[in-house]
Write a structure and sequence with these properties.
Blueprint (H helix, E strand, L loop, with lengths): L2 H9 L4 H10 L18 H10 L5 H8 L4 H17 L2 H13 L7 H15 L6 H7 L4 H10 L1 H4 L5 H9 L6 H17 L1 H11 L5 H7 L5 H8 L6
Helix pairs in contact: 1-4, 3-5, 4-5, 5-6, 5-7, 7-9, 8-9, 9-12, 11-12, 12-13, 12-14
Length: 236
């Protein structure tokens, strides 16, 4: 198993029309968040199929895939890492977590972050110090900031909301819509498990929340609640 053979397998599924669509969907134009990214045009199920067939790929070969210019190569590498993490012993999981953090340059679009952050970083940090997430949150790199937030989905699923709320508060003034969406999504996940925790956060911060973050956060609330928050009419 080599990175080159994985890439060849992915290229065999290449679809120029889908690649063209992905270039637009993932904003790869000049000045856009995915500037310069390239696509083969394989589907997610096809990419997962290749990952499954190469599940024992070494770190050295995964590193090559994470540095590849094709988006699907990086996606495939992350799926392999996730599957290896699930089956690894404690020491193996630690190595995968550290490898992941050392290669965030390859986790450089929102779908790459969203599929991997909570599955690797979040799962590893469930019972550990989470200072590394705040280091990522203070990065100048948009994707590392998003990794910090999306990693907390693993905590949310255990009804541990503290870090999600702290990071959402930190990013209230973030300039990028992708962070507004990420924080809003995580807040919505909090609300699905504990509506009072969500509304408590909203009642403190809703007037300063970016509209996108707010809209994502309140998606599962009642129509009456959503209307009040969006109209900025909540009263104590």
């Amino acid at each position: 198993m080599t990175a080159e053979s994985v890439k060849e397998q992915l290229l065999s599924f290449g679809n120029p029309q889908k690649a063209k669509h992905s270039n637009c969907f993932f904003k790869t134009g000049k000045g856009q968040y995915g500037e310069g990214d390239r696509f083969i045009g394989s589907t997610v199920p096809e990419t997962r199929k290749v990952a499954k067939a190469n599940k024992n790929l070494s770190f050295d070969e995964l590193e090559k895939l994470l540095s590849d210019g094709y988006h699907e190569c990086r996606f495939c590498a992350l799926i392999i890492l996730i599957e290896q993490f699930k089956k690894a012993c404690h020491k193996g999981r630690k190595e995968i977590f550290e490898f992941y953090l050392d290669h965030t340059h390859g986790v450089n679009n929102w779908d790459l972050v969203d599929v991997s952050a909570y599955s690797i970083a979040g799962e590893w940090l469930l019972d550990k110090d989470r200072a590394v997430l705040y280091q990522l949150a203070c990065s100048e790199n948009l994707w590392e900031q998003r990794i910090a937030v999306i990693s907390t989905l693993a905590f949310i699923r255990k009804k541990d909301f503290t870090d999600t709320l702290k990071l959402a508060e930190k990013f209230l003034t973030h300039r990028h819509d992708l962070m507004h969406k990420a924080c809003g999504w995580m807040l919505r996940e909090v609300g699905k498990r504990d509506e009072k925790t969500l509304t408590g956060f909203l009642e403190v911060h809703y007037t300063e929340m970016p509209r996108t973050m707010l809209r994502y956060a309140i998606e599962k609330l009642s129509p009456e609640q959503k209307k009040k928050y969006m109209m900025r009419e909540v009263r104590n």
